[in-house]
Amino acid sequence: MYQLxxxxxxxxxxxxxxxSLFLVCMFGxxxxxxxxxxxxxxxxxxxxxxxxxxxxxxxxxxxxLEDGLGMENFMKKYEKxxxxxxxxxxVSYRFDLDGRSSSYFFExxxxxxxxxxxxxxxxxxxxxxxxxxxxGGFSDMNGTNGVLISKPIAESLNVHVGDSMTYMVxxxxxxxxxxxxxxxxxxxxxxxxxxxxxxxxxxxLKSAYGRPETFANRIVINFPGKYLDRKxxxxxxxxxEKLFPMYRLVxxxxxxxxRDDGPEIAxxxxxxxxxxxxxxxxxxxxxxxxFFIIAVLVVIIxxxxxxxxxxxxxxxxxxxxxxxxxxxKKKDISLTLLLESLxxxxxxxxxxxxxxxxxxxxxxxxxxxxxxxxxxxxxxxxLSPSVNxxxxxxxxxxxxxxxxxAVFYSAWKSxxxxxxxxxxxxx
Length: 427
What we know:
By secondary structure, the chain is an alpha+beta fold. Strands 1, 2, 3, 4, 5, 6, 7, 8, 9, 10, 11, 12 and 13 form a 13-stranded mixed beta sheet that branches. Helix 1 (2-13) crosses helix 11 (330-363), helix 2 packs across helix 11 and helix 2 (15-54) runs antiparallel to helix 12. The chain is 50% helix and 18% strand. The protein contains 13 helices and 13 strands. It has helices spanning 2-13, 15-54, 74-84, 125-128, 151-157, 202-209, 230-241, 253-257, 277-315, 317-325, 330-363, 389-414, 419-424, and strands at residues 58-64, 68-69, 90-98, 102-106, 109-112, 115-119, 133-136, 146-150, 164-170, 176-187, 197-201, 218-222, 265-271.
């Protein structure tokens, strides 16, 4: 294919002229891809924080119109729920307590909490492995009076791993109970999901609150490293409907909690997304901002390369006249010019991919926990960029397609001149 040979030859001998076009393509696409990968990583980190907080991909809950949320004899229900989900899913149980009715005390200093979560740390190991601990950890938490607290709370109380605190809680019977708890781990999280949340042993927290051993208020299901879509949620909803009187699959958890219809006792499978209505709005806002930035960058790349290439084509009218004089057809000349720009764009985009991977790798090595409230976007204190192939390919295809259209327009206008006029033009 002689047009490709001519295109490669032209690029080689005019490389100084095309260097700026290559750099515009490489850096523009690189910035776009880096923005996509970093924002995807931030959203994934936020979802991971939410998974730890809510216990995974699903929460299975029971509600009585008379008594509210709670499961008596939860182990029987746990076994049934466990039978529905595959073996690679972590199925556990929790006792979530409103922390506003309780406080920690240490040497005269008080710290309030938003939520206290009683967990089985062995069953939820895959979740807690994603926590970044600045001191201690969650190993050997089961069956103890240990507690995991956030770094900001530890600093406000001036406590360290191994210290004993007093935990005061208003019990189920409206009495005041105090128990000693030992700090087992301090985790790095100042986000809405972590700062005012602490974790205790499932049985210990229930005992302190005054609930029997057979009680739980949710069963949690986690698919490690996976996020399930609506279709998969509907599949498990249908399987559970064979075993329990299920409430409809909801998009907002409050629809189930505040229900005033249906059977006296109903069960619900609450997807992670149903807990994150406010977070989903923030995620969509981030996507909109990233989309706008990328659209602007693509326009700049296309306009920059297209306009510069038009000038280069005008300067090459003499060469185009020679091609016409020796009998090359206009479509062949246009194809040659398009192949030049296509090769340039492909090399630029490949270089952009490599550059964006390097940039993301470097960024992931820095700890950004020092930024207030930025922990919600971090995994173990670091940004963790995530490659989104679909978005990446879309950006590359858009850049190449629109740029080729701009180049074709410039080339077609140039080759419409008469061969004599083209030959008379000095490059």
